[in-house]
Design goal:
The protein has 13 helices and 12 strands. It has about 325 residues and is α/β, with parallel strands linked by helices. Helix 6 runs parallel beside helix 7 and helix 6 crosses helix 11.
Length: about 325
Amino acid sequence: MNVGLIIPADTPPTGGNSISARRVKEGLQSEGLHADTVLYQDHLPSFDVYHGWNANRVGVQLVRHGINPHRMVVTWTGTDLWQDWVADYRPIADALDDVACQVVFTDDARSRILDDKPGWADRIHVISPSVNEQVFAPAPAAIPLPHPLVLLAGGVRPVKRSAWAIDLVEATREATGIDIHMAVAGPVRHLGEWGIVKSKASGNPWVHLLGEVPKEEMPDWYNAVDVVINTSAVEGVSNALLEALSCGSLVLCSNIAGNRYLVENGANGLLFSDEGEFVHQLTEALKGGDSVKRMRLEARKRVLARHSLQLEIAAYRSLYDHCQFLVAEPKSCSR
């Protein structure tokens, strides 16, 4: 079987879809399957199965360019559901109506799609994403950094609310008088948001703009900072958060569906809904103590228990096999 893992054309190497597709590719290859990660284009190589990462920007386009829906697996990754589908689900639903193998990361995501398309119940599958727990593992800090330091990891774009994150840390500095430093790591995905981020960082030496950090260097950052933050408006499941949790980092993230899937407030991390809650949670987090130690340990423990690469690959292989069955039995349209 030859599987094409197709990601949006503008995805940088450290983008979430790129990381997810490469992870699945490596898992498939370890089991003897042939798989390629390909940026979406109108003229794609021939594959037995086309696995689109982003239902709207890849899945819909594959159908419109004549790919047999029975040869397709579509993974809903975040903005395709919580922004595009929520804004107007009908054109996406019409395009994907014959795609029998669709994947979401969480039960909440599945329920949201079925609110609008209850007839899709047999084709929306929940597959939990995984992380390489050997690479992303607790380790002594290896980078000399100013402390306390919080890290925002992820592409700079409006949905990540990167500029707002600087405002939140600044509000905490003002409320506490603590000289908190902030590092922003990730590729520029939106020039407008990047301009605002640069403007807010200008003249503030406590803001450090790292740019795109190679994935292999990220464990050192997760293990060296005091808190990893996520301020996203919507998420599928954040690879950056999953990596940080696997390293046993203390995470503070926006109280949205995708983040709640990973983080139980006060158990393995912290959630916030507004500026006041952020200031309170970060202030308490920086005090350290037994509660912080407990959350860090629980963060790693839950990743090991719930996010297995072997289970993720087995689930996708099952869907790929089903695609092969559908091609052989074209009258069947759902699992």
